[in-house]
Write a structure and sequence with these properties.
Largest sheet: 5 strands, antiparallel
Distance between the termini: 72 Å
Strand order of the largest sheet: 14-12-102-101-100
Low-confidence stretches: 1-39, 123-130, 257-293, 456-580, 807-818, 1068-1078, 1228-1257, 1497-1520, 1703-1728, 1770-1792
Radius of gyration: 62 Å
Helix content: under 10%
Mean pLDDT: 75
Strand content: 25-35%
Length: about 1800
C-alpha cells in the first residue's frame, strides 16, 4: 500500500509496538512454561517437552511422558526433594496413539477463505485518513481449520492430523480496494410548505449514487428540513385534522377452539400512545374444502387489521372523530397460505466437457427439479428449479478431444466449357475443347482417428499442393509421403527432365503434368516391371522406355518367369503399404476454424497439334533391303525426313518418315574416291601425267569398311591428266555436276545433269589444238528410276487388350480379382504406292516395316470408393405429443472417386432416411374440477364487537377441488398435471351474499341479436325496490345497468407485409445435407432467369388483431414471378487482318488485334485492360520472316574471251567476255518448293518440277533486283594469253580474315600455273593479298533473335499450356541478313531457344457453393422473423472471369404468426381500502396480449384505440402493421396461475397521514458503476443504487421517524467514474468549490477531502499599499497598469505606474481600470540584457536616449551616401537595340 503524508510514520510506530508486545508475550510464556511452581525464592520445577505417544496398540491407550527438573534460581539443577513434592507437575498422561493407517481416517477440513476485511486499528480506534489511497489497503482473510474423521466428518483433536501434516494456515494477507465514500447527488428543490396556514415545514432530498465500500465514509443525511410560515394564520379550531388510519392485514390463520373466538372482541384504548387504540386481531376457520384423493387441500381462513383515528400532530384520537357514515371493514375471508413444494433434485446431467482441449474453460452440468405444489395465499415462492455447476475444471485426466479435419473427394473431370465467354463460337460444340480448364471436388469434414490425432505432424492432413515444385526436384521420391495425386503441385514441363525417374515410379501418372513425353526422364524397363504401372497409362510406352516393343515384351515375360512367387505375393508387392481408413463424414461445423481446402482447381486437356516435319532428303543410292543378307538384283533407293516437333499426347500421329523407290543392281558397299594434289607430268615439265587419288570402301551409311567388302574392282590409284606445254590450248577443269532436273523418270521427262569447262588460252603454232565447243560441255542421265514411290502406312494403335500368353503378369487382390495386367496393342500396317493405294507388302522395305503389335499396360480397374455412412442424425430427446408426425433421422455418404476401367460401380443410395424409433408418447393428463362450494363468510361469532354489518352477508370466497386425471381416467398425482396438463383451472373465486342494504336488481336479460360482423350485443337489468331511491345505487360506474360484448366474427383480412424476398431461382437441392456439412462447387450454376419471389401476409381479425396466417392463406405468402437479369459478358470484335511484318528483313512479328464492342453488364465477364481510347488491348503476335532478298540475279557462266581483231595474227591479248544476267525470284530458305531452277544444256535457266517437267524461267523486271543488289556486270575485259604466255588458273577463294577483323591483318588468295611460258616469258604473281577492312573485305557475323510471339494455343483451347516462338537470323556487321549457315561457318554458337512452353492464364469464373437449406425462422412469431440461406465463394474470379455476385445471402420473411405474451401493467397508486391513510396495497394486472413481435419496443398502451372493421369498413391496411398490443384470452399465453405465482402482483404500501413522519418513494436506480483503478476495472459486475429519504411533517414526531435507507443490485456494462474538485472564478477573495463526477454530475463525496481547494484566499501581511490587491497565489500584487516593486524579502514595496501607456494627466482610476497588472512584452524582451534600458521605477534610462539619437544620425548618413553613389549618368545618344517580343510557350504547367 502506498500512503502519502504521515501514514508511513504511523505504520512504522504501529509495527514497532506490535514487535514489543510480541516479545514481552514470548518472555511471559517462556517464564510460565518453565517455572511451574515455586517452593521458595530459590528452587522451582521445570518441565520438558511431551514425548511421543507410546502404546502397544493404536488408539486411546497410549501414554505420553516428559522430563522434570528441580532448578535453582541461578540456573543449576538440584535434587527433586528440594522442590515441594505436592506441587510436582505431571510427568505422564494418557494419549491417543496415532498409526500410519490412521492417515486414511483423518484429514484437515478447511473452509473457504472469508471475505477480505480491513485490519482494525488497535483497541478499535477510529482514525481519519491522512493520505490519499493510491492502489489498495491491507486486509486479512480468515478461515476455519479442524481435524475431522473421514467417515462421519466429526471433529477430533488437531494434534491427530498434525501427526501427518502441518496445520494449514488460518489467516492470510489480502488487499482491499481503496475506501470509497458514499456519494450522493445534489439536493432537490424545496418542497411546498406542509401547511397552508401558520407555520409548517419544507424539505428537500437527495439520492445516493454510490454506497460506501471498503471502509469509506457513511452516507450523510438525505433530507434537509427547514421551517416555513404562511402569511395567513390558521383559524381557531382548525389547528388539527383527523384521519382514519388502518394497519396491514394480518396473516391468514384458523383458531382451534371456541374460546379464542369468544375472546375476539374489539376493544379500543384511547390513551395518548400511538400504539394504543388498536383493533385486536382474531380469525376463525369456518370452511374446509373437502379433500379429494390425490388432490390439493384448499383451506379458507380469516384475517383482520387495525383501525384507529389519528390527529395531524401524530397523536391518536377517538374513533368516532374519524368515522362519520360507516366503519371500515376490519375482517375478511382469505386463503390459507400454501408454500411451494418441489421434488427432489434429479441426477446431474453428464458434464458438457468430456475431453481435454486447448481452452481452459471448465464444463458444466445441470440438474433439475419440478414443482409439486403451486404457492397460494402468499405462500413461500418456489426456489430455483435448475442448478448449474462447473465440472471437469482441470481436465488433465480427461482424454484428448477428437480432432476434425477437412477431407476431399477425387477431382472431377476437367472441363473447358465453363471458361468460354458468351460470344465464343465454340459453345455450340464443346466436345473437342482442350487446353486449360477447371475441375471441382467435394469437401467434407471427418474425425481424425485417435492414433493419428496424437501425432503432431499428421501426413494425412498434410497437403503437398502447398509445396513448390522445386521441392520435388530437390528431394528424392522416398522422402515424400504417399499422398493422393491431387496433393502434388504442378511441375512445369521444363523441370521434368530434372526429376528423378524414381519419382515417376513412386507416384501415379496423374500426379505428373500433362506434358510431352520427350520431357519425361528415361526409365529402365525393369523399373516398370517392379513398380506400380499406373505411371504410363496416360503416356505411350515408347516415350517412357528407350527400348523396342519386342524387347519390352521379352523383358516382361522373362521377369515374371524368373519369379516363382505366387500371385498373392505379387499383389502384396503392388498393393499399397498402408491402407488408409476412410472416416465417416461429420457436420462441417466441427471443422470450423480450420482452413477449407480448395474445391476448384485448374487443369488442362491435351490439345492435338500438327506434326512438324523436316524436308525430304535426296534420294540415296540403290541398296539392298538387308545388306547383311543381300538377295537378288532388286533394291531400293530411300529418302527420309525427321520429326521436328511431335504432337502432345497423340503418339505416332505423324505421317510416314521414309519413302522408297525400287531399283536394280543394288549395292551395299561402294568405293569412295578422293582426288587431291597436282598433275605430275610423266616426263619433263609438261605433257601427259597423272594425279593420285585415295580409294576407300564405305557402306551405305558412309562408314569406312574393309576393301574386301566392295564387290567392284578397286579404282585406279591414279588418274591420267595433262599439263599444257607452251603453245598448247589451255582448258579449265570440269565444273561440278548440276542438280538433277527431275526426281524420277517418266515417259515425258528424263533426269539430266550437266557440267562444263572453258577455254583459257588459244594454241600457238605447233601447239595442241583446242577441242570443239561441244566438248566443253557434258550431259548425263540422272534419277532414271521410274516415278513409283512406296511407303508404309500404319493405323492408330488399338485398345490395350489382355493377352493370354501374358497370364503371369496379372496382379491379383486378396479376393482374387484381376486389377492390372500387361496386354498388347494391335494396328494394321500396309504398303502404299503413292497416288495409287495399297499394294502388296513386298513392294515396300521389309526392314522399315513398323511394328503391328506392342505390349501395353492395361489400365487398373478402379472400384468406386465412398465414405461410410455418417452417423444418424439425432432424434428429438423429448416425447412425442399426441397426433404429431413421427420425426425422422437421416444419414448420408459421399463418393470419394468414381469407378473406372470396368471397376465396381458406385452405389445408387447416398442418402437414407428413417423414422425415429422408440420415442415415447407424451403422457396425457388433464385437470378435473369439482363443484363450487358455498360462499364462505365470516360468521357472526367472529364479527361480534367489530365494525361492519352484523348480519351474515357481504363478500366472501368460493372454493372448489381440482384433481389430475390420467389416461385411464383415474386420479394421479397433481404434479403430473403441472408438467403435462397445461394451465391449472382456478380453485377460488370471489362471491358475495347480499345484505339487506345492498342494491337489488332484476336478472340480466338475454343478449340482443348481432346485426353483423364487428357489431356488439347487449343485455340490461334494472333496480328494484328501495334501491331505486338510493343515491349510491344510481351511480352507473358502480352498478351498471347495461352490458355489451363484441359479437363473434369469422371474417379475416389479409394484407401483404414487408418487402419482397430475393428472386429465388428453381433449383434442385440434395436433401439431407445440412448447412456446412460439405462444400461443393458446380460450374453450371444457374444465376439468372425466371424465378419466384415471396412476400409475407398478415392475417387480421375484424378488430385488427393478428391471428394465425392459416386463416387467410395456406402458405402465409403471396408470390409472383420475377426475373433475374443474366450477366452479359464483355464483347469484342473479330480478329483484324494481320499487320505487315515488323521488320523489312529477317525475323519479326506480325500482329492482329480486337477492339471493344460492348461492355459487360449485370456482373458479366469484365473487359480486358483498356487503353486511353477505351479500347481493349487484346492482340496476338506470331513470328514472321521478311524475305531479305526476294529477288536475286541469276548469272550464267562467262563466255570465252573474244578478241576484237580482223587478223588472226593478233588472236590473243585483251578482249571481252560476256554472260547472261537475269532477275529471278529467290526461293524461301528451308521451305519445300514444288519446282527448282536448273540450267539446260543450251545454257538457259529452266524450272524443274518434282515430277520432272522442265519449263522456262519467266524473267522479271531488272528494277526488282536493283532494289536490293546492284546488277552484276554482264561484260568485262579479259586477256586471252598468247602462245608462249604463262596461263594461270582462276583465283581461288580468299582466305579468312580474323574474326575480329583486325586491320593489321590481311587475307590472300592463290592461283596456279596451267601452262608454262616460253623460256623468255614469266608468269604473273600467284598470290594476292589485301587488308582486312571491316564491312569491306571483312565482315563479322552474329545471331539475332526476334521478339517472342504471344503464347499460341490450339484452336480448340481457351487457355492453358501453349508455346511461343521466335525466329533466328544471321546478321552481318553491315546490317545485312545472310543465311544461317554463314554464322555457323564463322563459328558462331547458337545458344538461343527459339521455342518454349508458356501458359495462358485461364479466365476462371467465380465458383460458388450450393445454396444451403433454408434456416429456421429467427423468430417463432411476429413480423421480424427471417429465414436465411447462404452460399460461399469456393473460387474467386481470376483474370477476365465472371466476378462473384454480391448476393451471397438470401432472405425470406417467415409466415407472420401472432405473438402472445404476458404483460405486467404499471403499478397503481397506493390504495387504502376504507380509510384515509395507513397501510394499503399497490396492484398491477397480468394480461395476455397479442402483438407483432416487436413488443416491448412497441407502444404497450392497452387503451390506445385500434382500427376496427366495423367502425370503418373501407379501411385499408398499410404494409406496416398498425395494431398495438391488445388483450386476448388468457389461454393463448399459457398457465396464468403459474405465471402469477412467479410475479409480484400486489405490494404493500402506505399512505402517510397528516403529521406522520414517512419515507419517500424509492429513487431511480443510479447508473451502473464499477470499482476501478486508474480508470480500469478489475470486475465485470457493477452496482446500482437507489435510496429513500425520511420526510418530517411535524417536528414533534422526529423521534418516531424511520431510518433512511438504500439498496444495491448488481448490473452489467458499468463504467468507471472519477471524481475531482471543481472551482468557480474568484468573486473578490471568495469562490465556490464543488465535487464533480467524470460524467459531469455534481455530487457530494468521492473527492478526497484533504485535496479540497480553498474557498477564501488570504494574504499575509495584508495588502495595504495603494493600487494593490490579494492575488490567487496568496501574495500581494498591483492592479493592471501598475508594476510591482518588491522588497529584498519578497514583499510588495509599492506599485508604480507603467510608463508610456496614457497621458500623464490621465486619471489614475482610468488607468488602473484599463490596464491591470500583468507581464509586459517589452520587459520580457529586455530581461536578458546586462544593461537594462528601463529602471526599476519603470522609467527609461538617460543613456538609452543617447543611443537612440546616435542611431538616427547613422541612418541619415547612410541614406545620403547611397544617393550620391547611385546617381544615374547622363543618357547617351545611341539608340537602344530593338527588343524581341517575348513569347511564352505554355507547356500545360498549372503554375503558369
Amino acid at each position: 500500500m502506498m500512503v502519502k503524508d504521515g501514514c508511513d510514520i504511523l505504520a512504522w510506530i504501529w509495527r514497532y509496538r506490535n514487535y514489543c508486545i510480541l516479545f514481552l508475550s514470548l518472555i511471559a510464556s517462556h517464564v510460565q512454561s518453565d517455572i511451574e511452581f515455586t517452593k521458595d525464592k530459590h528452587f522451582s520445577w521445570k518441565t520438558g517437552q511431551w514425548g511421543r505417544c507410546l502404546g502397544e496398540e493404536c488408539g486411546s491407550g497410549g501414554v505420553q511422558t516428559r522430563t522434570l527438573w528441580c532448578v535453582h534460581s541461578e540456573g543449576w539443577t538440584s535434587h527433586h526433594s528440594n522442590c515441594p513434592h505436592a506441587e510436582q507437575p505431571e510427568s505422564q498422561r494418557p494419549c491417543f496413539k496415532v498409526c500410519e493407517w490412521h492417515q486414511d481416517l483423518f484429514e484437515w477440513e478447511v473452509s473457504d477463505w472469508a471475505t477480505c476485511v480491513l485490519i482494525p486499528f488497535p483497541h478499535n480506534q477510529v482514525k481519519l485518513r491522512t493520505g490519499e489511497c493510491i492502489t489498495a489497503q491491507h486486509g486479512i482473510q480468515r478461515r476455519s481449520v479442524q481435524c475431522v474423521r473421514t467417515s462421519n466428518r466429526t471433529s477430533v483433536m488437531s494434534r491427530i492430523c498434525e501427526f501427518f501434516s502441518h496445520k494449514p494456515e488460518m489467516e492470510q494477507a489480502c488487499l482491499i480496494p481503496c475506501p470509497q465514500d458514499c456519494v450522493v447527488s445534489d439536493f432537490s428543490y424545496w418542497s411546498s410548505c406542509s401547511k397552508t396556514c401558520g407555520t409548517g415545514l419544507q424539505h428537500r432530498t437527495r439520492d445516493v449514487l454510490a454506497t460506501p465500500m471498503y471502509g469509506g465514509a457513511d452516507c450523510p443525511n438525505l433530507t434537509h428540513t427547514r421551517p416555513c410560515s404562511n402569511p395567513l394564520p390558521c383559524p381557531p379550531g382548525e389547528q388539527h385534522q383527523y384521519s382514519l388510519k388502518v394497519g396491514p392485514w394480518s396473516d391468514c390463520w384458523q383458531p382451534q377452539d371456541k374460546v379464542v373466538w369468544q375472546s375476539g372482541r374489539t376493544m379500543l384504548d384511547f390513551s395518548s400512545s400511538s400504539k394504543d387504540n388498536l383493533v385486536k386481531q382474531h380469525t376463525q376457520s369456518l370452511h374446509h374444502v373437502p379433500h379429494h384423493p390425490k388432490s390439493w387441500d384448499m383451506e379458507l381462513g380469516y384475517q383482520t387489521r387495525q383501525v384507529r383515528c389519528t390527529r395531524s400532530d401524530g397523536r391518536s384520537a377517538m374513533l368516532s372523530l374519524c368515522t362519520q357514515d360507516h366503519t371500515p371493514v376490519n375482517y375478511q375471508t382469505c386463503i390459507m397460505p400454501k408454500h411451494c413444494e418441489i421434488s427432489d433434485w434429479s441426477s446431474w446431467s453428464p458434464c458438457s466437457k468430456t475431453c481435454r482441449c486447448q481452452d481452459l474453460l471448465p464444463g458444466y452440468r445441470i440438474r433439475t427439479r419440478h414443482m409439486k405444489q403451486i404457492p397460494i395465499g402468499g405462500g413461500k415462492q418456489c426456489p430455483a428449479l435448475e442448478e448449474k455447476e462447473a465440472c471437469n475444471i482441470i481436465g488433465d485426466l480427461l482424454p484428448h478431444c477428437p480432432r476434425y479435419v477437412w477431407k476431399s473427394t477425387a477431382w472431377g473431370d476437367c472441363r473447358v466449357a465453363p471458361l468460354l465467354s458468351q460470344q465464343d463460337r465454340r459453345l455450340g460444340n464443346v466436345s473437342g475443347l482442350c487446353g486449360g480448364g477447371v475441375q471441382t471436388r467435394e469437401i467434407y469434414c471427418v474425425q481424425v482417428p485417435e492414433h493419428q490425432s496424437r501425432q503432431k505432424d499428421d501426413t494425412d492432413s498434410f497437403n503437398l499442393s502447398d509445396l513448390p515444385a522445386q521441392h520435388l526436384l530437390d528431394h528424392p521420391a522416398q522422402q515424400l509421403p504417399n499422398h493422393p495425386a491431387q496433393h502434388l503441385p504442378d511441375i512445369p514441363a521444363q523441370h521434368l527432365p530434372d526429376l528423378p525417374a524414381q519419382h515417376l515410379l513412386d507416384h501415379p501418372a496423374q500426379q505428373l503434368p500433362n506434358h510431352p513425353a520427350q520431357h519425361l526422364p528415361d526409365i529402365p524397363a525393369q523399373h516398370l516391371l517392379d513398380n506400380p504401372t499406373q505411371l504410363i497409362i496416360d503416356h505411350p510406352v515408347q516415350h517412357l522406355l528407350k527400348h523396342g516393343a519386342q524387347h519390352l515384351l521379352e523383358q516382361a515375360t522373362q521377369h515374371f518367369q524368373d519369379k516363382s512367387h505366387p500371385a498373392q505375393h505379387i499383389s502384396d508387392q503392388t498393393a499399397p503399404h498402408h491402407r488408409k481408413e476412410v472416416s465417416r463424414p461429420v457436420n462441417g461445423r466441427l471443422c470450423a476454424g480450420s482452413d477449407i481446402p480448395s474445391s476448384v482447381q485448374r487443369c488442362s486437356i491435351l490439345c492435338p497439334q500438327p506434326c512438324l516435319l523436316s524436308s525430304w532428303s535426296s534420294w540415296g543410292t540403290c541398296l539392298h533391303d538387308n545388306c547383311l543378307e543381300p538377295q537378288g538384283r532388286k533394291g531400293f533407293r530411300q529418302r527420309r525426313r525427321q520429326v521436328l516437333w511431335e504432337p502432345l499426347g497423340v503418339p505416332e500421329s505423324c505421317p510416314h518418315l521414309l519413302e522408297s523407290i525400287p531399283c536394280e543392281d543394288p549395292i551395299c558397299y561402294m568405293w569412295r574416291v578422293e582426288t587431291g594434289g597436282r598433275c605430275i607430268p610423266s616426263s619433263g615439265t609438261c605433257g601427259p601425267g597423272s594425279v593420285a587419288q585415295r580409294r576407300v570402301c564405305v557402306n551405305d551409311q558412309g562408314v569406312d569398311v574393309s576393301n574386301g567388302q566392295c564387290p567392284d574392282p578397286a579404282p585406279s590409284p591414279t588418274v591420267p591428266c595433262e599439263v599444257s606445254c607452251p603453245g598448247d590450248c589451255v582448258i579449265s577443269s570440269w565444273s561440278s555436276w548440276s542438280s538433277c532436273s527431275t526426281s524420277c523418270s517418266s515417259k515425258n521427262s528424263e533426269g539430266r545433269q550437266r557440267r562444263s569447262r572453258t577455254m583459257l588460252a588459244l594454241p600457238g603454232e605447233g601447239g595442241k589444238d583446242c577441242p570443239a565447243s561441244s566438248a566443253l560441255k557434258e550431259w548425263r542421265e540422272c534419277n532414271n528410276h521410274p516415278c513409283v514411290v512406296f511407303h508404309w502406312e500404319a493405323t492408330s494403335w488399338g485398345p490395350c487388350i489382355e493377352n493370354s500368353s501374358m497370364s503371369l503378369n496379372r496382379t491379383f487382390l486378396e479376393n482374387g480379382t484381376v486389377t492390372c495386367a500387361v496386354g498388347v496393342q494391335n494396328r494394321k500396317v500396309t504398303c502404299i504406292k503413292m497416288n495409287v493405294g495399297q499394294v502388296i507388302s513386298k513392294r515396300c522395305l521389309d526392314s522399315a516395316r513398323p511394328d503391328g503389335v506392342r505390349p501395353c499396360l492395361l489400365p487398373c480397374r478402379r472400384d468406386c470408393k465412398v465414405t461410410p455412412f455418417s452417423e444418424w442424425t439425432t432424434c428429438p430427446g423429448s416425447c412425442l405429443p399426441a397426433n404429431s408426425t413421427i420425426p425422422t433421422q437421416s444419414r448420408y455418404r459421399t463418393i470419394i472417386h468414381r469407378s473406372a476401367n470396368g471397376g465396381q460401380e458406385c452405389p445408387d443410395t447416398l442418402y437414407e432416411e428413417r423414422d425415429c424409433e422408440a420415442l415415447p408418447q407424451c403422457p396425457s393428463y388433464r385437470w378435473q374440477t369439482h363443484r363450487w362450494q358455498l360462499c364462505s363468510l365470516v360468521p357472526d361469532s367472529i364479527r361480534q364487537g367489530k365494525a361492519g354489518p352484523t348480519e351474515p352477508c357481504g363478500d366472501g370466497l368460493e372454493a372448489r377441488g381440482v384433481s389430475c386425471i390420467g389416461e385411464d381416467e383415474e386420479q394421479v398425482d397433481m404434479d403430473l398435471c403441472l408438467q403435462w396438463g397445461g394451465a391449472m383451472p382456478p380453485r377460488t373465486r370471489p362471491c358475495r351474499i347480499p345484505c339487506k342494504d345492498d342494491c337489488t336488481f332484476t336478472t340480466w336479460s338475454k343478449f340482443s341479436e348481432c346485426s353483423g360482423c364487428g357489431t356488439f350485443r347487449s343485455r340490461k337489468r334494472s333496480l328494484t325496490g328501495r334501491s331505486k331511491k338510493r343515491d349510491h345505487c344510481l351511480r352507473a360506474e358502480l352498478y351498471p345497468l347495461l352490458e355489451t360484448e363484441a359479437c363473434s366474427c369469422n371474417d379475416f383480412l389479409s394484407q401483404p407485409f414487408g418487402n419482397w424476398s430475393s428472386c429465388i431461382l428453381p433449383e434442385s437441392i440434395t436433401p439431407g445435407f445440412p448447412l456446412g456439412v460439405r462444400q461443393s462447387g458446380h460450374l453450371d450454376q444457374r444465376e439468372c432467369g425466371h424465378g419466384r419471389r415471396y412476400r409475407a401476409v398478415t392475417c387480421l381479425d375484424w378488430q385488427g388483431r393478428p391471428v394465425s396466417p392459416s386463416l387467410c392463406s395456406e402458405s402465409g405468402y403471396v408470390e409472383e414471378a420475377c426475373h433475374v437479369p443474366c450477366p452479359l459478358d464483355c464483347k469484342l470484335s473479330d480478329w483484324s487482318p494481320w499487320s505487315p511484318c515488323s521488320t523489312p528483313c529477317g525475323g519479326g512479328l506480325k500482329i492482329r488485334s480486337k477492339w471493344l464492342r460492348e461492355k459487360s453488364f449485370n456482373g458479366g465477364r469484365p473487359c480486358p485492360k483498356l487503353d486511353l481510347k477505351n479500347q481493349a488491348q487484346v492482340y496476338e503476335a506470331i513470328p514472321c520472316q521478311s524475305a531479305c532478298r526476294q529477288f536475286e540475279w541469276v548469272v550464267e557462266a562467262w563466255s570465252t574471251c573474244t578478241i576484237n581483231t580482223v587478223t588472226e595474227a593478233s588472236a590473243c591479248g585483251e578482249g571481252l567476255q560476256s554472260r547472261t544476267v537475269r532477275c529471278a525470284r529467290r526461293s524461301t530458305s528451308g521451305q519445300e518448293t514444288n519446282e527448282s531452277l536448273e540450267v539446260s544444256s543450251d545454257g538457259q535457266v529452266v524450272t524443274v518440277g518434282r515430277n520432272g517437267t522442265v519449263g522456262q524461267v519467266n524473267s522479271l523486271d531488272d528494277s526488282l533486283c536493283n532494289q536490293e543488289d546492284p546488277m552484276p556486270v554482264r561484260t568485262q575485259t579479259c586477256i586471252l594469253p598468247c602462245p608462249g604466255d604463262c596461263v594461270m588458273s582462276q583465283w581461288g577463294s580468299w582466305s579468312s580474315c580474323p574474326l575480329s577483323c583486325d586491320p593489321t591483318e590481311s587475307r590472300r588468295r592463290r592461283r596456279h600455273v596451267l601452262r608454262l611460258p616460253s623460256p623468255e616469258g614469266t608468269c604473273p604473281e600467284d598470290i594476292q593479298t589485301e587488308a582486312c577492312v571491316l564491312n569491306s573485305t571483312c565482315f563479322i557475323y552474329h545471331y539475332n533473335v526476334s521478339d517472342w510471339s504471344s503464347c499460341q494455343l490450339s484452336e480448340m483451347a481457351v487457355c492453358g499450356p501453349g508455346t511461343r516462338s521466335r525466329l533466328l537470323d544471321c546478321v552481318r556487321s553491315d546490317g545485312k541478313v545472310v543465311e544461317l549457315s554463314v554464322c555457323e561457318q564463322f563459328g558462331q554458337v547458337n545458344t538461343w531457344r527459339l521455342s518454349e512452353g508458356c501458359d495462358v492464364e485461364c479466365p476462371v469464373n467465380c465458383v460458388l457453393s450450393d445454396w444451403s437449406t433454408w434456416s429456421e425462422c429467427s423468430h417463432t412469431c411476429g413480423h421480424q422473423g427471417q429465414m436465411l440461406r447462404s452460399r460461399s465463394i469456393l473460387q474467386s474470379a481470376h483474370k477476365e472471369g465472371r466476378p462473384c455476385p454480391s448476393q451471397l445471402l438470401h432472405t425470406r420473411s417467415c409466415p407472420i404468426r401472432p405473438c402472445y405474451s404476458w404483460l405486467l401493467g404499471d403499478w397503481s397508486l397506493c390504495h387504502v381500502e376504507g380509510a384515509d391513510c395507513g397501510e394499503g396495497v399497490r396492484q398491477r394486472n397480468l394480461t395476455c396480449i397479442v402483438h407483432w413481435g416487436d413488443w416491448p419496443q412497441q407502444e404497450s398502451s392497452l387503451t390506445r384505440p385500434r382500427p376496427s372493421l366495423a367502425a370503418n369498413p373501407t379501411h385499408t391496411y398499410s404494409a406496416q402493421p398498425s395494431y398495438f398490443p391488445g388483450p386476448v384470452e388468457d389461454r393463448h399465453c399459457g398457465d396464468k396461475l403459474r405465471k402469477m405465482s412467479e410475479q409480484e402482483l400486489v405490494l404493500p404500501c402506505s399512505v402517510p397521514c397528516p403529521g406522520d413522519c414517512h419515507m419517500t418513494e424509492w429513487s431511480s436506480w443510479s447508473s451502473c458503476q464499477l470499482t476501478c483503478l486508474e480508470r480500469r476495472s478489475f470486475e465485470t459486475i457493477g452496482r446500482q443504487t437507489r435510496s429513500r429519504a425520511v420526510v418530517v411533517q411535524v417536528l414533534e414526531n422526529q423521534e418516531n421517524c424511520p431510518q433512511q435507507g438504500f439498496e444495491t443490485r448488481p448490473c452489467k456494462g458499468g463504467t468507471c467514474h472519477t471524481y475531482e474538485w471543481r472551482t468557480s472564478g474568484w468573486n473578490g477573495n471568495e469562490r465556490v468549490v464543488w465535487c464533480q463526477r467524470s460524467d459531469g454530475v455534481n455530487v457530494t463525496g468521492g473527492c478526497f477531502l484533504q485535496n479540497r481547494p480553498t474557498t477564501v484566499r488570504h494574504c499575509h501581511p495584508p495588502c495595504s499599499k495603494p493600487f494593490s490587491h490579494c492575488t490567487p497565489s496568496g501574495v500581494c500584487g498591483c492592479e493592471k497598469g501598475y508594476i510591482e516593486v518588491m522588497t529584498t524579502h519578497g514583499f510588495l514595496d509599492y506599485c508604480t505606474r507603467t510608463p508610456g501607456i496614457h497621458n500623464k494627466k490621465a486619471d489614475v482610476k482610468t488607468n488602473s481600470g484599463l490596464l491591470k497588472p500583468g507581464p509586459s512584452h517589452i520587459q520580457d524582451f529586455f530581461s536578458d540584457w546586462s544593461l537594462q534600458p528601463i529602471g526599476p521605477d519603470g522609467r527609461v534610462q538617460l543613456w538609452a536616449y543617447g543611443v537612440t539619437a546616435a542611431g538616427f544620425l547613422l541612418i541619415v548618413f547612410i541614406i545620403a551616401l547611397s544617393f550620391l553613389l547611385c546617381k544615374a549618368p547622363k543618357p547617351t545618344s545611341s539608340p537602344c537595340p530593338p527588343q524581341k517580343p517575348l513569347t511564352l510557350a505554355y507547356d500545360g504547367d498549372m503554375d503558369m
